[in-house]
Write a structure and sequence with these properties.
Pfam families: Sigma70_r2, Sigma70_r4_2. The protein is 74% helix and 0% strand. It has 9 helices and no strands. Helix 8 crosses helix 9 (159-188).
Length: 189
Amino acid sequence: MPDSTRPPESERGGSRLDRFVRERRLPLLRFLSRMNVQEHDAQDIAQESLARLLRYSASEPAEAWQALLYRIAINLLRDRARHARMEQRLGAAPVEPSAAAEAVSPEPSPEQHASGREALARMQAAIGQLPARCREVYLLHRIEGMTYPEIAHRSGISSKAVEKHISRALRLLRAQLEAGTTRNQEDVL
């Protein structure tokens, strides 16, 4: 039976997530320091990591928060290093990325996973809207890896017809995907 004299958890020290954030901020800063991240950058990365964790906390079990927090921080570190390398290539003021940033995992971030799944779903929907023969030829070429003459022989059409179907499929897919992108941008506005 709950103790009715105890204040609610929100008054006793905040939610589980609030406590987690308070408890993990300093260890995260120490971790970033060991990764040779300068203090001001470490503060920024820690703050951004904790903010991004808030987006996922409701959909992830509390036991996964720590691993997710560190994965987010590592991905942010990697993104900063990539950005610094790009600035160097483009002739901006030289910024030396830390050696630790080069050693971070190449695995995509949760945001990249979600974005990739959305792009795949859009592409599958666009392919599904192609005319039947056009879709068949496109999939034989792109998925099965068949050459135009192989597709022509299998489908009973000329190589020139295969070329036209592929060209039409690419044109239609590009138009559908661009229309979807424009529609998604309008939804945001």
